[in-house]
């Protein structure tokens, strides 16, 4: 019985994971974040992976996806853009995304790298 | 030799003479019958957007992968799709793919053998003059091919023919400035040109700027104007024969357009509607038709047997219906015109006296099919107004007119005797009056469907339709409350709108704003429907592999089973998809290509004047999150090409 419950839990976990942030989007978020804080480096990877995890914990992928759509496409001209400007639920999602980003920035400060200069001879 | 066999010889000889006096597009016609290529915007001349290729099918579509991608280097919305032509048609040694970009409408010829750019054409257009008067994004719907030329309809209304071989300009023709329009008068162009017989057909945009629009045919050979037919005005301008042009089975009669533009204040709103039992005629005529709109930017098929081409036109000038009482003919109308002379054979006005911006520009699809048990030659059209029409394409008789989204509520039904939609008073923005907000009108102004073309599969007999599921509030703005009078080159809209998911009106707990549907044009019923969070704004492709392709605003390219609608594959592309899926094969391998790119990026705020109206916060957010992307991967429209591994 116990084994069965663990099996179920495991299945559930895998199911949830499969529905989670796809690799493509995860990589994109992290690469973009590194680019924003000074480029690709190991320490920026720590910061951005951390920020990604915070956002991931706060929003399902579908919500994140729709929120970033609203963010990107509100400025589109014409009726296509108006769909995004007028969509109240989308606006709420966007607000959540902004809050999640703020939280992520607070929780995951930029990592400093200390390089020890070789002793001068 | 008997008399009979002489007769047979004569017929054969005549046939030979006819085929020798080849029309320039005989080559195009042949190419459209070869599924390895894509030579006409709609795939074939009946606008099916269907391919006989079946290498990719409903058994293996799940394995599709990216084959190659091409960045156009331009921002904003990318509509339309690629053309694919053999070397024999272009004078080049190998198969080539031709693709366009949003403004300033660059054209690229890509060698499919080695994926190099054989030539590129970059038009010089006056951005400051053109872009601010493009009402709804700086899209271009693609190219046409005929007689060794690639045709480009630039945004600034210039029609250009390029040699398919080297991209050099063969000829240029003015399609607007020659009659005093063009960008300075708010007139631009977004449509794909269409080569039919020995002519290039092209359209007109600017109904939001008071342009009186038209359709024009230019000689493919030299770019000389063959004919131009306006959407409204005197019969001679519309190319309409009062005695021979038919509407609902009757000749249209003299001045059929002019008679339906009444003077302001001519209609008493209380006698206006009541399910159209009310007044329709004018007691006093007005001249609002001079700013009448009726733009033409859809996808046009041709029936060579009837020698007719088909198209629909857009909204009447100014979105405030109160100032233009009358049916406003022939805006919002389905036209069948003689290909050679332009003379209208028949017309059918779908939305008389438009009060909602339900343009009738959407694609026309031709089919020979059974309707109510009888074999009919039909044209099928999914209108912005939410009704799908099946019309006899020879006579113009309306056979079926049914709602293709259950949310549609502005009219109860279409009266099949008069052809009039039966408008619901509560949804009539004219009846409710100027400066009054009409609420929960469905569909919204973007329509149950916009220009994004549907597909037809002869294998299933079904139409595959990308749809919107959106409602709106609509407030016509009076001159007294700040509506502007017509000034050439200035926006002439005079209405305020908001749009939201149809579920809010239907109160069914849903919040999806789109659906991909399969439609039976005989019974007028939805066969299957896939809800989509956002409007489905891509052109659809159906294939002999029983796969239907479409794209979404949230960037997904999708393949579904043509019979069941079951999802087979999805792929996240760099941006929202508003382009059309086309297919071809090269060296024995089938490819499916679509443009991904809807703009709306942070950089666009700088690039597009007038966008300053976008919410500041959104723009700022975008700058924060996407600044880098603008210089890296997603800064432009991308042609995505898929194949099996």
Give an account of the 3D structure.
In chain A, 74% of the residues lie in helices and 0% in strands. Chain A is mainly alpha-helical and 121 residues long. Chain A has one domain (22-106). The termini of chain A are far apart. Mean pLDDT of chain A is 83; it is low at 1-18. Chain B is mainly beta and 645 residues long. In chain B, β25 and β26 form a beta hairpin. Chain B is globular and about 65 Å long. Chains A and B meet through α2, α4, α5 and α6 of A and β31, α8 and α9 of B.
Low-confidence spans of chain A: 1-18
Derived structural class of chain A: mainly alpha
Give the second-level CATH assignment, the architecture of the largest domain in chain B. 8 Propeller
Quantity of strands of chain A, as a count: 0
Overall structural domain count of chain B: 3
Taken as a percent bin, the fraction of beta residues of chain B is 25-35%
Task: Assign the CATH topology of the largest domain in chain B.
Answer: Methanol Dehydrogenase, Chain A
Major sheet characteristics of chain B: 5 strands, mixed
- Give the strand line-up of the largest sheet of chain B: 1-34-35-36-37
Gross geometry of chain B: globular
Computed over alpha carbons, the radius of gyration of chain B is 24 Å
Q: What percent of residues of chain B adopt helix (DSSP H or I)?
A: 10-25%
What integer value in Å does the Rg of chain A equal? 19 Å
Strand content of chain A: under 5%
Could you state the CATH homologous superfamily of the largest domain in chain B?
A: Quinoprotein alcohol dehydrogenase-like superfamily
Any idea how many domains of chain A? 1
Helix count of chain A? 6
Biggest chain pair interface: A-B, 32 and 50 residues
């Amino acid at each position: 019985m116990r084994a069965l419950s663990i099996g179920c839990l495991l299945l559930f976990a895998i199911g949830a994971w499969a529905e989670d942030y796809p690799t493509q989007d995860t990589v994109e978020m992290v690469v973009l974040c590194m680019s924003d804080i000074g480029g690709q480096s190991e320490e920026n990877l720590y910061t951005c992976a951390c920020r990604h995890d915070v956002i991931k914990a706060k929003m399902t992928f579908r919500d994140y996806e729709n929120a970033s759509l609203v963010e990107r496409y509100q400025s589109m001209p014409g009726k296509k853009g108006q769909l995004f400007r007028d969509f109240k639920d989308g606006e709420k999602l966007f607000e959540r995304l902004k809050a999640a980003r703020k939280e992520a920035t607070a929780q995951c400060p930029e990592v400093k790298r200390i390089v020890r200069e070789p002793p001068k001879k | 030799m008997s008399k009979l066999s002489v007769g047979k010889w004569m017929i054969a000889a005549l046939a030979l003479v006819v085929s020798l006096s080849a029309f320039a597009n005989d080559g195009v016609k042949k190419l459209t019958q070869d599924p390895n290529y894509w030579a006409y915007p709609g795939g074939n001349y009946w606008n099916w957007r269907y391919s006989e290729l079946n290498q990719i099918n409903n058994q293996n579509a799940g394995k599709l992968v990216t084959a190659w991608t091409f960045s156009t280097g331009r921002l904003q919305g990318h509509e339309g799709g690629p053309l694919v032509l053999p070397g024999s048609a272009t004078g080049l040694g190998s198969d080539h793919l031709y693709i366009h970009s949003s403004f300033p409408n660059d054209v690229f010829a890509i060698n499919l053998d080695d994926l190099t750019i054989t030539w590129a054409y970059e038009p010089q257009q006056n951005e400051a003059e053109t872009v601010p008067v493009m009402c709804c994004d700086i899209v271009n719907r693609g190219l046409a091919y005929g007689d060794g030329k690639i045709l480009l309809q630039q945004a600034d209304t210039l029609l250009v023919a390029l040699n398919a071989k080297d991209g050099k300009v063969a000829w240029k023709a003015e399609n607007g400035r020659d009659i005093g329009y063009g960008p300075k008068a708010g007139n631009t162009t977004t449509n794909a040109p269409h080569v039919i017989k020995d002519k290039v057909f092209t359209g007109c945009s600017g109904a939001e700027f008071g342009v009186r629009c038209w359709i024009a045919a230019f000689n493919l050979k030299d770019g000389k104007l063959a004919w131009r037919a306006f959407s409204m005005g005197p019969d001679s301008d519309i190319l309409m024969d009062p005695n021979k042009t038919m509407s609902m089975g009757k000749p249209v009669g003299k001045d059929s357009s002019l008679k339906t533009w009444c003077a302001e204040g001519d209609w008493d709103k209380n006698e206006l509607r009541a399910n159209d039992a009310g007044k329709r005629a004018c007691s006093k005529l007005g001249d609002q038709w001079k700013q009448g709109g009726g733009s033409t930017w859809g996808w046009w098929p041709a029936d060579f047997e009837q020698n007719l081409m088909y198209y629909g036109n857009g909204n009447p000038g100014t979105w405030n219906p109160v100032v233009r009482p009358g049916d406003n003919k022939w805006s919002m109308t389905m036209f069948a015109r003689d290909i050679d002379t332009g003379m209208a054979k028949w017309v059918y006005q779908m939305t008389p006296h438009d009060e909602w911006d339900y343009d009738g520009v959407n694609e026309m699809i031709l089919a020979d099919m059974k309707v109510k048990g009888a074999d009919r030659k039909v044209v099928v059209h999914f209108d912005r107004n939410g009704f799908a029409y099946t019309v006899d394409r020879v006579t113009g008789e309306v056979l079926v007119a049914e709602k293709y989204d259950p949310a549609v509520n502005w009219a109860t039904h279409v009266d099949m005797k008069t052809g009039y939609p039966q408008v619901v008073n509560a949804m009539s923005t004219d009846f409710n009056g100027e400066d009054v907000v009409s609420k929960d009108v469905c569909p919204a102004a973007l329509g149950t469907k916009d220009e994004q073309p549907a597909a037809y599969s002869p294998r299933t007999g079904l139409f595959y339709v990308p749809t919107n599921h959106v409602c709106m509030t609509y407030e016509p703005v009076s001159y007294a409350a700040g509506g502007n009078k017509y000034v050439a080159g200035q926006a002439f809209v005079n209405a305020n709108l908001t749009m939201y998911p149809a579920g809010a009106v239907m109160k069914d707990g849903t919040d999806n704003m789109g659906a991909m549907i399969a439609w039976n044009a005989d019974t007028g019923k939805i066969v299957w429907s896939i809800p989509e969070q956002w409007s489905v704004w891509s052109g659809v492709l159906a294939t002999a592999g029983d796969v239907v392709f479409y794209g979404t605003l949230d960037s997904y390219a999708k393949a579904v089973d043509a019979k069941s609608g079951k999802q087979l594959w999805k792929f996240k592309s760099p941006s929202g998809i508003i382009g059309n899926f086309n297919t071809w094969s090269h060296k024995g391998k089938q490819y499916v290509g679509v443009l991904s790119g809807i703009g709306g990026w942070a950089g666009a705020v700088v690039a597009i004047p007038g966008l300053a109206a976008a919410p500041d916060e959104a723009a700022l957010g975008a700058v924060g999150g996407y600044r880098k992307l603008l210089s890296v991967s997603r800064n432009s429209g991308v042609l995505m090409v898929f194949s099996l591994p």
